[in-house]
Amino acid sequence: MQLVSEDIEQYCKDFSIDDSELLMELSKSTCDNEDKPQMLCGALVGGLLQILIKISGAKRVLEIGMFTGYSSLKMAEALPSDGEIHSCELMEKHIVTANGWFNKSDVGHKITVHPGSAKDSLEEFRAGSFDMMFVDADKTGYPEYYLKGTMLLKKGGIAIFDNMLWSGSVLNPEDDDSKALRETAGLIKNDSRLEQILLPVRDGLMIYRKKL
Q1: Which domain holds residue 150?
Q2: In this structure, what CATH number is given to the domain that contains residue 18?
Q3: In 10 A of CB 154, how many CB atoms?
Q4: For the purposes of burial, counting CB atoms within 10 Å of the CB of 75, is it exposed (0-12), middle (13-18) or buried (19 or more)?
Q5: Is residue 65 included in any domain, yes or no?
Q6: pLDDT in tens, 107-151
Q7: How far apart are alpha carbons 62 and 167 in whole angstroms?
C-alpha cells in the first residue's frame, strides 16, 4: 500500500528543511550501495526529528537502529554543541559505513555508537537519562524497545517510532512484524504515562511524550 503518493511526498520535501550536502551524499550512497535503501528514514522524518529536538530543547538522544547513519547525523546537526546521541546498532557493516560518514562531519563527535544487540545495550543506561528516543530497528523488537526505552526517558521526554503503519499491513496483521507493530501501538495507547499520536507520515510515525 502506497500511503502517500510519490508526487505529494516530493512536494512536501520541496517545502521542508533541506538536507545538508553531506546528508545528500549519504542518501545517494545508501541508494546506490545498500540492498535495502528504503530503510533510510528520509528527509521528511529526519526533518521532523530536527524540529522536535529544537522545540523540546533535547540534549541527550537515544537511537535504536542507525542503518548507514543518516538519522544520527540529521539529529546531531540539530543538537546544541553539548548535545549527544547514543546509537545502538547490531550490524557491523552498517557501523563501519556510518562511522565513515560521521568522520566526514563537523558534528560526528556528538554520536557514540553502541554495537551489538540493542536489548543488551539498553541495560547500560540509567533510567530517566534521555530527553528523546528514536526507534527504527527490527520490528519484532518494538514492544521491548518501548518498554525499556520509555523507562530511560526523562519526564517530558519524547519518543518517535518509525514504520508504525508498515505499508498498511497493521490493519490486518498476519506476519510477525505487523503483529509486533500492532502490539506496540496498543501498549503505547494504553500507557497512562504517555500522550501519543500516530501520524501517516511516510510509513507511519508514532510520537509520544512521557508526562509522568
Answers
A1: 6-34+42-210
A2: 3.40.50.150
A3: 15
A4: buried
A5: yes
A6: 999 999 999 999 999 999 999 999 999 999 999 999 999 999 999
A7: 25
